[in-house]
Amino acid sequence: MQSAPSLRTTPLHSVHCGLSAKMVDFGGWDMPVQYSGILEEHHAVRRAVGVFDVSHMGEIEIRGPEAAQLTDFVTTNHVARLKTGQAHYSGLLYETGGFVDDILVHKVADDHYFLCVNASNQDKDFEHIRSANRFDAEVENAGPRYSQLAIQGPKALATLQKLTPVDLSAIRYYWFTDGEVAGTPARIAHTGYTGEDGYEIYVPPAEAERIWNLVLDAGAEFGIKPCGLGARNTLRLEAKMALYGHEIDASISPLEADLGWIVKLDKGDFIGRGALVRQKEKGLTRRLIGFEMRGRGIGRDGYEVSIDGVPAGWVTSGSPSPTLCKNIGLCYLPIAHAQPGQAIQILIRNQPVDAVTVETPFYKRAK
Amino acid sequence: MYPENFRYTKEHEWVLAEGDSATVGITDHAQEELGDIVYVDLPKVGSRVEQGKSLGSVESVKAVSDIYSPVSGEVTEVNSTLADSPEKLNEDPHGAAWLVKIRLSATGELQNLMTASDYQTYVGAEK
Question: Fewer C-beta neighbours within 10 Å, C or N terminus of chain B?
Answer without folding.
Answer: C
